[in-house]
């Protein structure tokens, strides 16, 4: 995402908790700041790409971003988190005259590399309109979902479907492998059939055995955010939560099935 911005007409300024993270920008124009507050003071739009809401709270308050930003500027959280926390962050920013958007992204590392992410946005229409030209640099789709927190809601609903689809894939691919079906051929079939999904096509390509365990942790976090956020709104989330967690837990199993099938095909 940062490389996409660096290669755009925008003046990219960056700060990272780990200096090694900045290596990805080698050869791309950018200015490095020593602290989040210094970055915020020099920026019209600040984009946060952090793991969870606790990290966001840390840089906004302890890191001095909110205190350093000027009224009329825009703050964006691209991480996936709790919709209620997104509303709290937006209220804190609004009290200082700063517009805040919750704008989680879908598409993972490959989508960021290809600049084809889907950016899912909650906040005020005016702030969305002003920030969309920035999101367009790394997105093929930018969807405005509504009020603060709505971007997180959209992302969590998307993730819930992804993870329940993973459980479906684990169940069906396990049956296929155990009965001698060519799983690689099945995956190709599903690419153009009604039973297919984005997550099925990502297995073995974007999602490999080497990263499955890392993704499982993120998926478990996200399905719990989904369950907590929508339970507070009165939704019955138990069955979706349980199947989503089962999908996250089964990720390594189904990735291994796909990997074995591809390895067997290569050997043949």
TrEMBL record:
The keyword Glycoprotein does not apply. Coiled coil: none annotated. GO terms for molecular function: NAD binding; NADP binding; oxidoreductase activity. Gene3D superfamilies: N-(1-d-carboxylethyl)-l-norvaline Dehydrogenase, domain 2, NAD(P)-binding Rossmann-like Domain. Residues 149-237 form the 3-hydroxyisobutyrate dehydrogenase-like NAD-binding domain. Keywords: NAD, Oxidoreductase. The active site is at 155. Residues 1-146 form the 6-phosphogluconate dehydrogenase NADP-binding domain. The keyword NAD applies. Belongs to the HIBADH-related family. This is 6-phosphogluconate dehydrogenase. It comes from Conyzicola nivalis.
